[in-house]
Each structure stands twice: as C-alpha cells, then as structure tokens.
Amino acid sequence: MNETRTHTRSSALFSRAERVIPGGVNSPVRAFRSVGGHPFFVASAKGATISDVDGNTYIDYVQSWGASILGHGDPQVIAAITEAAQRGTTYGAPTAAEVELAEQIVADVPGADMVRLVSSGTEAVMTALRLARGVTGRDRIIKFAGCYHGHSDAVLAAGGSGVATLGLPDSRGVPANAVADTIVAPYNTIPAIDEQIACVIVEPVAANMGLVAPTDDFLRELRAACTRAGALLIFDEVITGFRLGRGGAASHYGVTADITTLGKVIGGGLPLAALAGSREIMSALAPTGPVYQAGTLSGNPLATAAGLRVLSLLDAKNYELLTQRVARLARGLSEVIADAGLEVQVPVVGSLLSLFFTDAPVHNFDEAKRAANTGIYANFFQEMLARGVALAPSPYEVAFVSLAHGESEIDRTIEIAASAARVVAEAK
Ligand SMILES: *Cc1c(COP(=O)(O)O)cnc(C)c1O
Fold first, then answer.
1. Given pLDDT bands bounded at 50, 70 and 90, which one contains residue 428?
2. Which of 242, 264, 297, 400 to mutate to test the pocket of ligand 1 (most atoms within 8 A of CB)?
3. Which residues have CB under 8 Å from 22's CB, separation 6+?
4. Residues with CB under 6 A from ligand 1
5. N or C: which end of the chain has fewer CB within 10 A?
6. What is the DSSP track for 270-331?
7. Where in the sequence of the chain do the CATH 3.40.640.10 domains occur?
C-alpha cells in the first residue's frame, strides 16, 4: 500500500487553476468542496484505475460520472474514435453512424420510435421539457426533490421538503418566472397532477442523491396518474439508460415513459446524449414540427463512433457480470463498514450502488440529506483516497463500477474499506 502519496503537482495545478477557472474546476463537484481538500489532477486513466500527475493511482468509482461503463480508455473505443477521426471530426451534416445509433436506441429503449441526438444530458432534458410543453400546450412541470436533470433553469429547483411546493430557484441568476411553472414533489410519492401539468420528469431510479430506488408501485402509479391527467411522463435515464440493462430502468421496472432522456453511457466517454419518444411526440421537433431545437456538434462523428462501439459490447452477459460485481462490492462494503462499528446502508439497484452512513433505508431527499449531513462520508472518502480508492467527492453520488473492475479490484476495495472504516469509526 502506498501510504506516502504526495500531491505537490496537483496542488500547484489547483493554485494555477483557481486563478483562471472559477473554483479551479469546470464542474463544481470536482472541486472536493463537500469532502475537503483539493482535487487530484488526472494524468491518465486505464480500465478500473485513474492516475494523477503526482504518480498516484486509484481504483476509480467515478468513471466520469458513469460515462465509462467499459472502464477508462477501452482499446476498442479508442480504436473507433481514432478511425472516425481520420475521416474528419465534425461535419454539421448527417452521417450513417447517427442513423445506426438512433436505430439501436429505438430497438432497446421502451417507447422509443424516434431519437434526437444532442451533446449533453442537460440539453436532452431541456429539449424534452420544451417538447412536452409544445405537445401538450401546457406550461407546468413537476420534478422530484433530489433528482438532478442537468443545469437548465426550469429544473434547477431541488425544492423544499415535505409537501409539493412551488419551486424556488436554487441558483442565483435563475429568474423567478423561469421556475414559476416548476413544481417540486418529494420522491416516491405521487403528486397531484392536474390539467395544467405538461409533464412529470423523474429519475426512475434516483442516482443523484445517493442511490434511492423507486418504492414498489411508484413508477407504475406515476405512469397511470400522468396518463389520467393527459400529462407526459419523462424518464430521465441519463444515468440508468444502458446501465441497468439495454432497456434501462424502463425495462427493469416494466414501465414505459412518453419521453426518455439518455446520456453518459451512450456517448462512450464523449459528449453525446439523446431524447427519444413516440413518433407522434418526436415529430413535433423541428424540422417536422413546431418545437425548435438544434446543435452545431449534435451527432458528432467521434461521439457516435464511441457510443456505437460501447453499445455493441453491452450484451446480457456483460450486464450480468456488472450486476454480480456490484453485488459483491455492496455485500463486502456493508459487512466491513458495519464490522468497524459504523451505521451504513448500501442500496443496490442492478448495477448501481451507493453508500449512506445512516441506520435506516433512504427513500427521499430529506432522508438522503440527513445521512449526508453526518459528515461521515467525507471522512470515509478521505481515508479511502489515502489508501488508493477514489470514490465520488460528494455524499450524493453513486459509485460507478465498470466492466473493467475485476474481482481483484473489488476485493481490494473491500479490504481498503475495512481499514478506512476502522479509522473513521475510531475518530468518531
Ligand atoms: C448527469 C445527468 C444529467 C446531466 O447531464 P450532463 O451531460 O452533465 O449535462 C441529467 N440527468 C441526470 C439523471 C444525470 O445524471
């Protein structure tokens, strides 16, 4: 075990970064604010591991926030990107790869007849909301507290706790009227849906407040309530799509949304996301319909090449393998952390897991916040990092296991977690 990790180069880079990049990072959670210290700067990554500029290597459970389901730098994906790049990196004109990727999504995602490719999950959600409003002629939307749908104005409101309330902006710079039509409801409860509601957007498995599974009938009842009210149901499957299986959470739970947003896995580590839905709904997008959306780099040839190669490798056997690895990790973590004397929940849904340092299962954002506020995650994170395991630098993120995480990496992680948990328990 390398206990003499140095961070001189990362420190120097972070100081430079802070002078020219707000907070030193280009996405806030990367700054390590909620766990303390400062981020390591990455030199390279391969498979299950990531290495920093000071020569430290970590078993990585961030995996670009779930974008790398095969693990870092998969040779086949690199080959696909390299081949594509030889033919030019962007055209702003249609390509065969876009059609192939759309066909694959249509084949696997329930309710998807047509697909529009975009460059980020934020964009996919933004367009899905505009489309839902355009199609229904209604303005109001319902989201759930603790669900993340990217950083566009309408869905930044995470909301107050308890009863469904009109959302207040959670960020300065979001005008009150941009969220005046956003209603925030607690996860795992069916909100009141009336004839003013254009859509209900939900992470069918919430994976941005730690991992919170839908309770037994939540998705089915939500589907029925939307249908009754003539509101569209949007599944934000940016994390779960092609991770819980090729059909995402929709197939996993047997509930079909009207619009599905995808991202992360389908880009194979390059900027690519998508929205998909019925022919009727999707045809409302320009140029066939009145709802406008566009993108200079949409359907980018490098991104579609990477995405197609990744999808070509995701078969039932690999999902089974991933699910087994996650189950092994979850079992091990919950055992060794509890043995150390810490209260812990390790929720698992298929190939997703997270850690809550609390004594009871978590069903919604309030309970997730209570678990996060104990501060134990931050200490555990630091002890893991010091021993060579990089968890997400936030208690609200899940751990992303990739197909490159073999049994040896999983077992090593559990071993390290045992030591880390003992140190955290002693310091308590
Ligand atoms: C990551 C994420 C987004 C935003 O995607 P970006 O590509 O970061 O814009 C949206 N929804 C969910 C569920 C996500 O996890």
1. confident
2. 264
3. none
4. 120-122, 125, 148-150, 203, 208, 236, 238-239, 263, 273
5. N
6. SS-EEEEE-HHHHTTBTTTSSB----TTTT-HHHHHHHHHHHHH--HHHHHHHHHHHHHHHH
7. 78-313
Cβ neighbours around 279 below 10 Å, total: 10
Query: Where does the chain hold its CATH 3.90.1150.10 domain(s)?
Result: 8-61+315-427
Which among 125, 237, 354 is the best mutation to test ligand 1's pocket, defined by most ligand atoms within 8 Å of the CB? 125
Q: In ligand 1, which atom is closest to the CA atom of 239?
A: 15
Given a contact cutoff of 8 angstroms between Cβ atoms, the answer to whether 253 and 204 are in contact is yes
Q: How far is the CA of 149 from the centre of ligand 1 (A)?
A: 6
Q: Can you read off the two tokens belonging to residue 371?
A: 């678990």
Using the atom order of ligand 1, give the atom closest to the CA of residue 123: 9
pLDDT of the residue at 177? 87
For 237-293, write each residue's pLDDT tens digit. Answer: 999 999 999 999 999 999 999 999 999 999 999 999 999 999 999 999 999 999 999
In this structure, CATH architecture of domain 8-61+315-427? Alpha-Beta Complex (3.90)
**SS3 sequence of 190-226:** CCCCCCCEEEEEECCCECCCCCECCCCCHHHHHHHHH
Q: So which residues are the catalytic ones?
A: 148, 236, 264
**What average pLDDT score do residues 317-324 get?**
98
Residue 119 alpha carbon to ligand 1 centre in Å: 11
CATH placement of domain 78-313: 3.40.640.10
Whether 299 shows a pLDDT value over 60: the answer reads yes
Atom of ligand 1 nearest to the CA of 122: 9
* 93 CA from centroid of ligand 1 (Å): 26
Name which of 158-167, 295-304, 313-322 the model is least confident about.
Answer: 158-167
171-193 confidence digits (pLDDT tens): 788 888 888 899 999 999 999 99
Q: What is the pLDDT of residues 141-167, one digit of tens each?
A: 999 999 999 999 999 875 432 223 344
Percentage of residues of the chain with pLDDT beyond 90: 89
Q: E strands along 348-393, which residues?
A: 348-349, 352-353, 389-390
The atom number, within ligand 1, closest to the CA of 147 reads: 13
